[in-house]
Structures are given as C-alpha cells and as structure tokens.
Write a structure and sequence with these properties.
The complex is a heterodimer. Chain A is built from 15 helices and two strands. Chain A is mainly α. Chain A has a two-stranded antiparallel ribbon with strand order 1-2. The mean pLDDT of chain A is about 85. Chain B has two domains: about 190 residues, D-Maltodextrin-Binding Protein, domain 2, CATH 3.40.190.10; about 230 residues, 3-Layer(aba) Sandwich (D-Maltodextrin-Binding Protein, domain 2). In chain B, about 45% of the residues lie in helices and about 15% in strands. In chain B, strands 3, 6, 13 and 14 form a four-stranded mixed sheet that branches. Chain B has a four-stranded mixed sheet with strand order 8-11-7-12. In chain B, helix 8 crosses helix 9 and helix 9 packs across helix 16. Chains A and B meet through loops of A and helix 3, helix 16 and helix 17 of B.
Chain lengths: ~350, ~450
C-alpha cells in the first residue's frame, strides 16, 4: 500500500513538473494543461493512499486501535465514494479544468490558429484593453446584469409565491411557467427577433398597427436594446428558477404559517416574516448564479442584434466569439475570457463579503 | 536461422503493408453535397471515372465540404480537412496568415499555370507574395436590380429596358421614385455585420476615398477623410432625407439582402455575378427579371471591388495529393487546359444552372489562356438562358480600366468593423454627425494599425 502510494505520488509529481515546464514553454508544449491537471490529481491520490497506508500500519490493539480502525473503515467507505465519483471527476479534469488552464496559457502567447508561436507576456491583455470594442462590451455586460436583476430577479419569486398559494390549477400553472425552458434556446431568440422586427411584419408592429399606431424600431434603438434582450431572457429562464423557489417554499414548515394565522398575521406579514426569511439564503445563491450567467450572455445579442447598433448591445463573450470564430485569433479570445473570469471571481468575492448568509433559519 | 528468416519475413510484410498504406488518398472537399443530385451524378459518371482511369494509384474519398468559418478551424486543427476545398478571396489573409494553407506557388509554376492567372487576381490569391489558391471565378462588386419593381415604377424605356442609375445622384432619384411608386424599398443597405463596412468601403471608393496608405513605412488610415464623410452623409440621407431603405438596415445581412431583392421588398442591392442564384432560384425572382449593373459612379468614377472564390489546400496536404487535386480540377475544367473532358466538366456546370433556374453568367476571365477562354465563350453562347443585355452594363463597367479595386490590405476586418459602427450610428440616429463618428472610427482603427501593424 505504501509503495503504491509513493508510486502514485511520484507519478503525480512528475506530471506536475512536466506540466509546469510545458506551460513555461521549456518542454514540448502540446499537453501542458493535461499534464498539470493529471499531476494535481496524482498528488491528491498519492496523499490519500499514503494516509490510508499509514493508518493500516499504525492500527494496533486497544481503544486507540479500535478508533483508528473505525477511521480506516471510514476511509475505505470514502474510497468507494471516490471511485463512484471518479468518472465524473476525470471528465471535469479533462473537459473543464484542462481547457481552463489551457486558456490561461494561450492568453500569454502569440498564436497561429491554436498553435502557440512565442511567449508574449501581457501583450494580448494590453491589446485587448485598447481595442475599441473592449470598454463598450464591459459596460454592456454590466448593463445586462443590472437589467436582468432589475427586470428578472423578482419575477420567479413572485411567480413561485403565487403558484404556491394557488389551490386550483397549480399543476397547470407550474407546467405553463416551465414551458419556455423546454423550447430550444436559439429558437426562442429567433422567435423574439421576429416579434421585435422593425418590419411591418414584426409582431409588435402588427400589434401597433392593429391599435392604429405607427410602427417603430426596437432592437436598433440603442437606449432600449439591452432591456428588450433582457426581457426575452427573463421570459425564457424565469420558469426554471420559479421551480427552485417553489421547492424552497414548499419546504417551509406549515406550522409557522398556522401559528402566524392564529396570532392574527395577515398575508403581508406572513410573507415578510415567514416566507422571505425562509427563502433568503436560496435567493442569495440564485442571485450570484444569475449574475454569473447573465454576465456571460452571448447568443441573444449575437442572434438578435450582432452586438449593434454601434456596439450598443455587444457583450464581452461576444467579443470572445468574434476573436475566436471570426478571426481565428485565439490568443486575444482567451485573454478576454480570462478577464471575464477575473471580473466574475471578483464580483463573487465582493458579494460573499458584503452579503453574509442569514443564520436565522 | 529460422528465427532470422521469420524476422525478415515479418519485416518485409510490415514494410509492404506500410507501402500499400502510403497510397495517395484524394479527399475531395469539392465533391457536391447529397442534395445536389445533378452535381453528384456528374462527378460519379464523368469526373471520377476519367480521373481514376488516369490515376489508378489514387483513391478518391468523397468529403463534401461547404466552407464555413465555424467549421473550418476544427477541421484544420485536427488535420481532418479535405485535400482541396473552396473559399473566398477575403479569407486568404486569415487562413494563410494563420498558417492553415499550403503554398502552391512552386507547383503552379511547374505546371505553367502561374503566369496564366489573370493579373487582376494574383494579389487576392496570394499572401505575402506567395500564391495559396487557384481562382475558380472572380467578379467586380456591382448592383443587382429587381426589374419587376422598375417596371412597376415606370422606370423603363420604350423597349422595356430598366432605366438604371449611372451615378449616385441618379441612384437616389431612382430609389425615391421606386419607393413612391411601389412602396418597396429603393435599396437594401447592409447594416448588421462587417459586410456593412465592406459594402460601405466600395461606396467610399467611388467618392475618391483611399482608406489606407503606406507612408514612411507606416500604415496610415484615412477613415475620416472628406470622401468617406461624403459617402456616410449619402447613407444618412438615404435613411433620413429620402427614406428609401428597408425598415431596419441594422438587421440586414448578406443573405437577407437577397431575400429583400428576390421577394420584391427592395429594388436594388450591391452584389456580384457569383450570387445570381440567390434572388432567383432561392427567393423566386424570375430569371428574366434580374438585372445587373456596374456600381453607380461618384466623383471618382465607377469603382468595383474584386472578389471571388478559389480552391485551396489545407496545410499538411502532401504534394502528390495537391497534384492529384490539380489534375481533378483540370478534369472539371477549372484549369487553363482545354480538353474534351474539361469541356464536358464546364458543360455540366452550365447545364446544372439551366436545370435549376439560375441565370447563366459569362463571368470575368480567370485565365489569360485564349484557347481556354474561347472554349468558355462557346459554352456560354450555347447555354445562356437570359438576355445578355441585362448584364451588359455590369460587364462593361468591370472592364473599364481602373474600375476593379482590390480589398484594402491591412487589418481589413477591423476596418470594416469600425465603419460598420459609424454606419449603424447614422442609421439609428437622425442627428448623428458623420464627421464625428468617422473621427472616432479613424482614431480607433489607427490605434489598431499602430499596435498590430506599425510595431
């Protein structure tokens, strides 16, 4: 067992070293990210094995031994869990963490296609920062996030409270609310593009015409294009969030409500003193998840406006897309991705600092 | 001894197998897709048997590929791209610049094809002085007209020939008349993506613009010069003063432009003769109701952008595979070689156009080989299915000395992106100031040139 643990540790260390050398451009660079991830995984596995081996060896007699044996059996139990998790963990390593590390690496290199040419330090980042599309895209990504919270954050909460209170047609309402989520994403975007088309055949313009009003433009109006796009996103995504809130609401002990009713509390007081505190932590998590998701918005502006007019709706992810798939410029695309990741990380950290979880419930 | 013999036998067998495996495989990316039954039939019954008879050592793999920016990169990076594919002139700097294409200059020279390429398209087929593709066709960007709308607006002479605009002033009048008389848009202006900047550049050229110049070894942008400002003012007037555009130009892209033209929602659209199938076969405009003209003249005369398609060979394609592909192109009639089979090849193209209801175009000469061009002329005369008078002014305009203009050389997509933003701004805001917008575009683009080119 001990020998095995040393072997795994050694292999892990070797992989890690090769990975670092590869990333630094000293060794052949092709599988640097993979080696690094394999190395980290190897070190973890080795450490775990050595821990188990140590416990096996030191297991003697008496009370202490029984305790150690119990710990050992716990480890064995854990080992089973690790085995069950292994396929998933490996997939994560290779399809999430490895590309992630590769992206960071590519962002420091000059590239031809996906092949690195030479190490250029922060040059790609500097070019990114002076690119005319950078600041509009940063501003817009924050605007998307702001509008999605302003327009969309309360919608699922209100819907879930209403559905929770319904006595007749609850199942129908639940299904209806979730329906937009099961329509393929791109199809809904194309659908909304037709609705907001500036042509006489656009849905909204047909409505205006029926009311005898002149037709107008929507997506080419720089001051309303982002709220409109957010509106369509809310329509599509609110359903799944509503179901999560609904689950949260249904887990609240009915006795709280009964006691409140006996004490004479009305609907509002029950909402403010029981419902909201009970879903506070859930809402907190969903808020940060919403920020992370909306900040990375891409295909709505890509399909509906292509970022226009005059960059009024371009998002940071769309700039990444333009670099990667319109110009094959992976070094700048990855530099932009890293900037997005850093912004989101910072946002999450700040958010976690200022909004402490409620401990009341 | 026995062991030695056995070893030698195994070695010989392995090497033999390896030798057999090294047989040339020609992965034909230019093989037609399944739905093109006529094309498949021509390749199967004509081209492939002829090729196999001449090249018994080459295996053909059918790998139809329709060029697309989203799919080409994974194919190239993974080494799974076909041996030969088609792409556009505009993609050469991107593909060759990223080291994705084989340099075929020497091979073309060996075959004697290099000096037969029309000098007007050597530039767009090359990157940093080396040739990366064989032109399939080339064109000058002109204007397509929906003849039905011209007729409806009364814009035809006594013979029924459309009274088409020859200058930008006439263009504005014509567009306004069409809008007044028919209610359809006079012109489809592109505004959705970089194609907007691409079209706008051509418009600016006719006002005398020169968007980039090389001065003292540095590339200088001229996006806010007077001719460009005048061109942008024209765009703004088309929208706000004359109101002759479609409902939302910022939603119009290359494909929707053809839709608007073909379905009679707009009367004029900037396009070239390689796309005549779009408004006709795809969107239902009868082939005798499509007309093409040269770009309207501005103060600098008529200027038409050179564009086209070409055959290219992904990086890593071995020389024998490239040569096999070139032989195949020869059979298809896309090389400066006249033969019965080449004639059959080109005939099949024309027959396919006629059968699919696509106007048969003469096109500009890709090769300078007289014998080859005579063959094409003869085939064209045999198959032409539209009145050549509808295209005469287009080809006359392109043939004028100095009318054809190559794409601006440096960071072209970035330049188009900056121009597109300025164009979008004047389309959505009646009070936008073209000069101020182009000053921003100039500043942005010059910064990019300084950072990435004038290092």
């Amino acid at each position: 067992m001990r020998a095995l643990s040393w072997m795994v540790l050694g292999l892990g260390g070797l992989c890690l070293l090769l990975g670092i050398l590869a990333l630094a451009g000293i060794a052949p660079v092709l599988y640097g990210g993979w080696l690094l991830t394999a190395g980290i995984a190897g070190l973890f596995a080795g450490w775990y094995l050595s821990l188990s081996a140590g416990m096996l060896e030191s297991a003697g007699g008496g009370e202490q031994a029984r305790l150690r044996l119990r710990r050992l059996s716990r480890l064995k139990y854990d080992l089973g869990a690790w085995f069950i998790m292994a396929p998933c963990a490996i997939l994560f390593l290779f399809f999430i963490y490895d590309p992630l590390i590769e992206s960071v690496r590519l962002s420091f290199f000059e590239t031809k296609g996906m092949t690195t040419v030479r190490f250029v330090g922060f040059q790609n980042y500097r070019r990114m920062l002076i690119h005319p599309d950078f600041w509009p895209s940063v501003r817009n990504s924050f605007m998307y996030t702001f509008w999605s919270l302003a327009i969309g954050f309360m919608v699922p909460i209100v819907m879930s409270v209403i559905v929770n209170e319904m006595i007749i047609g609850k199942n129908l309402a639940r299904t209806a609310i979730y329906l937009p989520v099961i329509v393929p994403g791109l199809a809904t975007v194309v659908l909304w593009r037709f609705i907001f088309s500036a042509e006489a055949s656009g849905g909204m313009n047909m409505l205006l015409a029926a009311l005898g009003l002149p037709r107008t433009t929507y997506l080419s109006n720089p001051s309303i294009v982002i709220p409109i796009i957010v509106l369509t996103m809310t329509w599509r995504n609110a359903g799944s969030t509503t179901l999560i809130y609904l689950a949260g609401l249904q887990s609240i002990d009915p006795q709280h409500y009964e006691a409140a009713i006996i004490d004479g509390a009305g609907v509002w007081r029950r909402l403010i003193h029981i419902t909201i505190p009970n879903i506070y932590n859930l809402a907190r998590t969903l808020l940060i998840l919403q920020i992370i998701a909306v900040f990375q918005i891409i295909y709505e502006p890509l399909v509906m406006t292509n970022g226009g007019p005059n960059n009024a709706s371009v998002s940071m992810m769309q700039v990444v897309y333009r670099y990667a798939f319109e110009r094959f410029d992976y070094s700048h695309a990855t530099a932009m991705s890293v900037i997005i990741a850093v912004i989101l990380l910072a946002l999450t950290l700040v958010y976690n600092r200022i909004g402490k979880p409620s401990e009341a419930y | 001894m026995k062991k030695l013999l056995a070893l030698a036998l195994v070695l010989a067998l392995t090497l033999g197998a390896a030798g057999a495996m090294a047989e040339t495989v020609l992965k034909l990316g230019i093989y037609p897709i399944d739905t093109d039954e006529r094309g498949v039939e021509t390749h199967e019954n004509t081209f492939i048997p002829a090729f196999e008879a001449a090249h018994p050592d080459v295996t053909i793999e059918r790998a139809p590929y329709d060029f697309n920016l989203q799919t080409i990169l994974p194919l190239l990076e993974s080494g799974n791209a076909p041996s030969v594919i088609t792409t556009y002139f505009t993609e050469i700097p991107k593909l060759a610049g990223n080291d994705f294409l084989e340099d075929i200059t020497d091979i073309l020279e060996e075959r004697g094809w290099l000096e037969q390429i029309n000098p007007a398209i050597i530039g767009p087929s090359s990157y940093e002085g080396r040739v990366y593709g064989i032109p399939r066709n080339f064109y000058g960007m002109g204007m397509m007209l929906n003849v039905e709308l011209f007729e409806e607006a009364g814009l035809v002479d006594e013979d029924g020939t459309p009274l088409y605009p020859k200058t930008w002033d006439e263009f504005v009048e014509t567009a306004a008349k069409i809008k007044d008389e028919t209610g359809a848009a006079g012109f489809v202006l592109l505004g959705a993506d970089n194609a907007a900047g691409w079209h706008f550049t051509i418009l600016s050229w006719s006002f005398g613009a020169q968007m980039q110049t090389l001065e003292d070894g540095k590339w200088i942008a001229h996006l806010n010069d007077e001719p460009v400002v005048k061109a942008l003012q024209l765009v703004k007037d088309l929208k706000w003063e004359h109101d002759v555009l479609t409902a939302d130009p910022t939603a119009e892209n290359w494909a929707t432009g053809f839709q608007q033209l073909g379905t009679g929602a707009a009367a004029m659209y900037m396009a070239a003769d390689d796309a005549v199938a779009q408004p006709t076969a795809n969107y239902g405009l009868p082939i005798d109701k499509l007309m093409m003209i040269g770009m309207p003249a501005g103060p600098a005369g008529t200027v038409m952008l050179t564009g086209g398609n070409l055959f290219v060979f992904p990086k890593g394609t071995p020389k024998d595979e490239i040569n096999a592909a070139l032989d195949y192109l020869e059979i298809m009639g896309y090389a400066p070689v006249v033969s019965d089979i080449a004639r059959e090849g080109r005939k099949a193209d024309y027959e396919s156009n006629v059968a699919n209801g696509v106007p048969v175009m003469k096109g500009l000469n890709v090769w300078t080989n007289d014998e080859y061009n005579a063959m094409i002329d003869e085939l064209y005369a045999q198959y032409v299915n539209v009145d050549p008078a509808l295209y005469a002014s287009y080809y006359e305009a392109a043939a004028k000395p100095g009318a054809l203009h190559a794409e601006e050389p440096m960071q072209t997509q970035d330049m188009y992106a900056e121009l597109t933003k300025a164009l979008q701004a004047v389309i959505v805001d009646a009070d936008a100031d073209p000069q101020a917008l182009l000053d921003i575009a100039q500043e942005n683009f010059q910064a990019l040139l300084d950072e990435q080119v004038n290092k």
